[in-house]
Amino acid sequence: MLNHAHVLSATFDQAIDRASMGLDFLIQNKVHLKNENALLAHIEMLENKIKGITNQYNELVAEANAHIDDVTSKHNELANKYNNVCAQMKAKDIELNNKQIELEKERINNFDLLVQNRSYNNLNRAYSHAVGQLEKDQQQLVNIGVRRFIFNSTSKNNIQKINF
After folding, report:
1. Half-sphere exposure of 135 (CA within 13 A, CB side)
2. Three-state SS annotation for the chain
3. pLDDT class of 114 with cuts at 50, 70, 90
4. Of 32 and 14, the one with more pLDDT
5. What angle do the packed helices 33-132 and 2-28 form, to 10 degrees?
6. pLDDT at 163
7. Distance of alpha carbon 106 from alpha carbon 136, whole angstroms
8. Which sequence spans correspond to the domains of the chain?
């Protein structure tokens, strides 16, 4: 549509040029003033048409620019929403990865505690069995010694729990 207005504008420019040349020709040949006035009126009419077409062209350009601005703003809005969603998804992925790492650490710790607990249970059974083989006064001496060892112990690797 804009191209069409451009073509019409060029066509009217050519018409004005031709009319001007015709007017010059009439003036040179001293044709009647009546024909000259008619030609001038025709040129004025063509100039008015050109102004009208130019105004239409400018209106179409303004309308097209308004549409372009509208589409651009909608595009920018969608791009911002997309970027926000991507950022949220990335944050959720990081959060999920951190949660998975924590769960894996907890699983490993639980497994270590289970193994440690089984070791302590086996140690308690062996201790109880060994002490049970002793006589009563020897059992009391062993129990007192173990209590003192646990009480005075500072190492984390020492026995933490013993059933008496």
Report:
1. 2
2. CHHHHHHHHHHHHHHHHHHHHHHHHHHHCCCCHHHHHHHHHHHHHHHHHHHHHHHHHHHHHHHHHHHHHHHHHHHHHHHHHHHHHHHHHHHHHHHHHHHHHHHHHHHHHHHHHHHHHHHHHHHHHHHHHHHHCCCHHHHHHHHHHHHHHHHHCCCCCCCCCCCC
3. confident
4. 14
5. 160
6. 47
7. 44
8. 2-111
Q: Which two tokens stand for residue 15?
A: 């018409």
Q: Decide: 44 and 24 in contact? Cβ < 8 Å.
A: no
Query: Tokens representing 117?
Result: 């607990």
70 or 30: which carries more pLDDT confidence? 70
> Looking up tokens 């040029």, which residue turns up?
17
SS3 track for 71-90:
HHHHHHHHHHHHHHHHHHHH
Q: Are 13 and 50 in contact (CB under 8 A)?
A: yes
Q: Is the pLDDT of residue 46 over 80?
A: yes
